[in-house]
Amino acid sequence: MQLASIQIKGPIMDHFPIVQALCRAAMATPNPALRKQIERLSAALKEAGEAKQAGTLNGILTSAERAEEMAPSRLVRSKAAFAGETLTPNTPLPVDKETSSVLAEVIFPHQISATGPLFSSPVEAAVKSLLDEWNHLSELEALDVAPAKSCLIFGAPGTGKTRLAYWIAKQLDLPLVVARLDSLMSSFLGTSARNIGALFSFAGRYRCILLLDEFDSLAKLRDDPQEVGEIKRIVNTLLQNLDARYEVGLTIGITNHPQLLDSAVWRRFEIQLEIPVPDLPLRLEMARAFMVPADVPESHIKLLAWFTDGATGAELETLVRSYKKLRAVRGDASEEVFDVFRQFATMNSGRLSKPKRGLLFGDQANLISALHDAESPPFSMTELGELMGRDKSTISRIIKQDRKTKKSD
Q1: Which of 26, 242, 249, 328 has minimal CB crowding within 10 Å?
Q2: Is pLDDT at 118 greater than 80 in this prediction?
Q3: 182 with 217: CB under 8 angstroms?
Q4: Which of 222, 240, 242, 239 is nearest to 231 (CA)?
């Protein structure tokens, strides 16, 4: 392969974070020509011995491919399938008649990021299946079936549920009507039920996706002994409106507390999609994505993923942001990466597991040994030296001494 036309030296390597950011921005709306040029650049970097930078570009290409795989192939047909009038920025929004508070806000497709959220393969497959249904309407009609009209997304806070709902609206090229649940719930007897009716009436009039975020605040268990009769009326009204909207368009509910939902509410949703906390491979992918445009050693990415076992994507993003801030203030000294984790663990004590917090603030030899013994992801002696600011032989001596000490104890 002839790569002589791409010169991998001097300025291009000095400014690789800019090159990386440009490639990621370009792949937000990919085409074959762009992809080919990034592939050529990646191959040239690899041939020049810049394996880490080549791997970064390959990661950008892989992420773009995954987003394309999830995206529907025909947007116009899905949009046409939604009955009703067209929403515009000037469309009057529904309000609470008692307080004049707006009951919803409208997010238009152009306001939503084109970059898809990162999820595990099973979740991505489920989302792709939903989008495919809306883009194969004639095939479904031939079998006398309709695409899914309701989807409940649940999971721990910070797992990307709301971001996913926004991205679905982007892919179907439809406005997202986001219910303001604080306005829906009124202190006036009977007003809350009326507000729910007004919201659904608005969503049913226009071509849109209705999003009920923090859904559990509306759909509490009707037999909750702590609740008065008003909440029962609210849930009944909600059920009636969900039934009526089924023939109109797509409704998405989101909850962090699925155990609070009435069983009758669960039955109203065809798709019940749980978003789990990310596993290690996904945390690695997320860390690389969140790190842009910073150009950091791969060992730091692996360390971020290793320390955040059990954390959500939002928590990992917060940690990466803290890392980037400290790097901007103090420079790129590798050994200071642990300062980020200690600072983060102090300010966010609930976001790192107790054993790993103990390693952070304990004896350095224990930390080095724990990283060396990690099977997923594995850390080489070179990477441990890079993280600790030591050479490989020193790291090896520390590990041997630590094992000897523990054995004698």
Answers
A1: 328
A2: yes
A3: no
A4: 222
